[in-house]
Amino acid sequence: MKKDLQISNFNKIIHFFQDNIEEIIESCPAIIRPIMPSSIFSSEQIEAMHLINRNFFCFAIRFNIIIKNNMNIKFEERSFRIIRIINVNEDNRFLQIFAEEELAHA
After folding, report:
1. Region of poorest pLDDT, from 19-28, 54-63, 71-80, 81-90
2. What is the pLDDT of residues 9-63, one digit of tens each?
3. How much is the pLDDT for 5?
4. Cβ atoms of residues 63 and 87 within 8 Å
5. What is the model's pLDDT at position 54?
6. Angle at 5 between CA 3 and CA 53, to 5 degrees
7. What 3 state SS string does the chain have?
8. 80-23-73 Cα angle (round to 5)
9. Entry pTM
10. Alpha-carbon dihedral angle through residues 28, 57, 1, 60, given to the nearest 10 degrees
């Protein structure tokens, strides 16, 4: 995703919220990419936590001090739980946010 970090590629709008999905804390353009659990977790964690059938995504956004690990993301009708936030190159320009999609149980 590093080469994608150009403003013109930030073509999806995502919303950040905490407990109440109706109360949006922040909205911003983003890049969204699906990722494999092995990008975030060790093979032991994947097996122990039964992560193989879960959907994980990486969101890239411009740096924003408001965004915290205890928030969730809403994109269109989908919700994601933030797992980890990385300040890319530690230069306060971009954030990579790893999140798990919250799937509705039938």
Report:
1. 19-28
2. 888 999 999 876 678 999 999 999 888 756 565 556 555 555 555 788 989 999 9
3. 61
4. yes
5. 72
6. 80
7. CHHHCCHHHCCEEEEEECCCCCCEEEEEEEEEEEECHHHCCCHHHHHHHCCCCCCEEEEEEECCCCCCCCCEEEECCEEEEEEEEEEHHHCCCEEEEEEEECCCCC
8. 15
9. 0.78
10. 20
Query: What residue has token string 């946010």?
Result: 97
Place of tokens 């230069």: 91
What are the structure tokens assigned to 74, written together?
């809403």
Hey, what long-range contacts does 2-9 have (CB within 8 A, 24 or more apart)?
A: 2/88, 4/31, 4/33, 4/60, 5/31, 5/60, 5/88, 5/94, 7/62
Count of residues in the chain = 106
